[in-house]
Design brief:
By secondary structure, this protein is mainly alpha-helical. The chain folds into 2 domains: about 200 residues, no CATH class; about 170 residues, no CATH class. About 80% of the residues lie in helices and about 0% in strands. The longest helix is centred in the first third of the chain and has 43 residues.
């Protein structure tokens, strides 16, 4: 099967990169299958409780990461002799932050639960366990080390082993008919296995985690440098997860039904991400040597992402209800209209991914943050208005509009407006029609 290509790019290198994402595709497919089984098994209410807990903790976990990944990589490359100090300090910072966030997560939940009109069953233990699982993600600093050495393949191997083991565990839980708390424990197991795997892989390279050291001055320096990225990471996570958290005000069943649609709609987002990542080096190279070719490549990338999404969005718009019925064995039939709406968000997500590369290449990091913040703010305000009226359908509409606002925020800025116009041309297939009429 021939993989998609983009005119003006090295097709051989492009296809090679995408073929190397086979393990990634395997992981995503396995995760989707297991999540479908869990959703079928739990039913809308319990699946809604799980989805709410995961989304709430994910927003707080964005703080726990401290935006350190990029700086860990840079610091190790610049000061390889200080590796143990950099990693030890980063681990200490993350463990302290993630440890504090466990009671914070519980506190936020108890506060929202107390004032909720539809509180449902208490989820304090569920929230506590999921937050505890995030604590073990502190060891992802080892991932940053391997990235600094261009040895990410070792991390991918660990992630795949962890995914397979926890998937088997989740399937056994479903098969044995065990309660929700056992499924939650699988998320802790996943985090623990991944942490242990990263430590073992690091040790096998002849390195010792016991040699790591915490340095207060290094900690202060890292926090000062990464503080803008912490806020940015939180905004991105709010942008992606806040709809599920806010929908809990309607009830767990509404959350479960909406999440079933959202999971299917977003299951294939890794494909455009792989495409965008694969062409980013070529974009940077073209910008250095030929600016007009750089602009043309961006336009071709926007065209491709729209061409990929539109047929799928049209198909799912017509058959969303049937897809939901088949995927979830008729337990989430109300999610059909939500899927038919939510799937169109993908176009704006894809274009946003591509234009983010442009913003990075041009050094417009502040604009990138502002547009994410605009999307997050729009999503919150729209959900406040639409969820009480239309529940999950309202959340789907809010997501669609917020994604559009975030992506085309660049139209409001004079120096990025041309990129917004290029994306609009791709969105309305103007480039495609121009080529047809020319021929």
């Amino acid at each position: 099967m021939k993989l998609p290509s983009i005119k003006g790019f090295d097709e051989e290198a492009f296809n090679k990169y995408l073929k190397n994402t086979g393990w990634l595709m395997f992981g995503k497919a396995l995760s989707l299958i297991v999540n479908l089984l869990i959703a079928r098994y739990l039913g809308p209410i319990l699946f809604g409780d799980l989805s709410f807990g995961l989304s709430l903790v994910a927003i707080l976990a964005a703080i726990g990461g401290l935006g350190l990944d990029t700086f860990i990589i840079r610091e190790i490359i610049q000061e390889p002799s200080r590796r143990d100090e950099i990693l030890g300090t980063s681990l200490g910072l993350r463990m302290i932050t993630n440890g504090v966030l466990i009671p914070v997560a519980i506190g936020i939940y108890l506060f929202s639960h107390h004032f909720s009109k539809n509180p449902g069953e208490p989820l304090t233990l569920l929230i506590a366990l999921l937050a505890f699982a995030s604590f073990f993600k502190s060891f992802n600093v080892i991932d940053s080390y391997f990235q600094s050495q261009v040895q990410s393949k070792y991390v991918v191997q660990v992630q795949n082993v962890s995914l397979i083991l926890t998937s088997i565990f989740k399937i056994l839980i479903v098969t044995m008919g065990l309660p929700l708390i056992y499924i939650v424990s699988a998320y802790i197991l996943d985090a623990v296995i991944l942490a242990i795997g990263l430590i073992m892989t690091y040790q096998k390279r002849g390195l010792k985690i016991l040699n790591w050291q915490f340095n207060k001055q290094r900690a202060k320096s890292l926090l000062i440098q990464s503080s803008p990225l912490i806020l940015s990471a939180v905004m991105v996570t709010i942008y992606m997860k806040i709809d599920v958290v806010m929908l809990k005000s309607v009830g767990s069943k509404a959350v479960g039904i909406y999440s079933s649609a959202q999971n299917l709609s977003e299951a294939w987002y890794f494909i455009p991400s792989a495409i965008v990542t694969s062409v980013f080096p070529a974009l940077l190279n073209a910008r250095k040597t030929d600016f007009s070719r750089y602009q043309k490549r961006l336009g071709n990338l926007y065209d491709l992402l729209v061409y990929i999404n539109i047929p799928i969005a049209i198909f799912i718009s017509f058959f969303g209800a049937d897809i939901i019925h088949i995927a979830y064995s008729g337990k989430y039939d109300g999610a059909g209209p939500m899927l038919s709406i939510h799937i169109w968000s993908g176009i704006f997500v894809f274009l946003g991914m591509a234009s983010s590369q442009y913003l990075i290449a041009e050094g417009y990091t502040k604009i990138s943050f502002y547009r994410t913040a605009a999307g997050a703010t729009a999503n919150i305000l729209l959900n406040l208005w639409l969820i009480p009226k239309f529940a999950g359908v309202g959340a789907s509409i809010a997501t669609l509009i917020a994604c559009f606002i975030s992506t085309f925020y660049v139209l409001l800025i004079p120096k990025t407006r041309q990129q917004g116009i290029m994306m609009l041309k791709s969105l309305f297939l103007i480039t495609a029609f121009q080529k047809i009429f020319k021929s």
